[in-house]
């Protein structure tokens, strides 16, 4: 029995590690910043919203509940995927979908708004290339904390965070 539990634990930890290497380690977007981060994109009811690397799904649920978006969260780490599914169910928010999978293999061509909290190197290369290739003109991309080099920032919201650090949120329009 101990071997079984150790094997399950190992699979879960490897899932978390693989997800961290794909986009970013899980660091949740603080709830107090979600209103301004998603408000920056001016999400309209019925628009298609994606949270890439959704972690526990808090931004996905927030977009559906507070903006009326058709919101989809994509998560590669299985434990976080389960946490996001539970959050979505408990929230009773309409139009929330949580998908397990690699965001680089999921078609985002119907996106109106994309929210991402990823590491700069991934944002500047793989993710930027994917979004430029797949997304329609006018798609809004909100990046929490990190700039996407090579794209022009349309709007930025800066607030002071903990320990006096600035917490920027950038909006890009493709």
Describe this entry's structure for a reader:
With 174 residues, this protein is an alpha/beta fold. The chain has one domain: Rossmann fold, CATH 3.40.50. The protein is built from five helices and seven strands, in the order ααβαβαββαβββ. The protein has a seven-stranded mixed sheet with strand order 3-2-1-4-5-7-6, with helices on one face. The longest helix is centred in the first third of the chain and has 21 residues. 37% of the residues are buried. About 11% of the residues have low confidence.
Per-chain topology:
Layout: H1 2-22, H2 31-39, E1 48-52, H3 58-67, E2 70-75, H4 78-91, E3 96-100, E4 113-116, H5 120-134, E5 140-144, E6 155-160, E7 166-173
Parallel strand pairs: 1-2, 1-4, 2-3, 4-5
Antiparallel strand pairs: 5-7, 6-7
Helix pairs in contact: 2-3, 3-4
Short description:
The chain has helices spanning 2-22, 31-39, 58-67, 78-91, 120-134, and strands at 48-52, 70-75, 96-100, 113-116, 140-144, 155-160, 166-173.
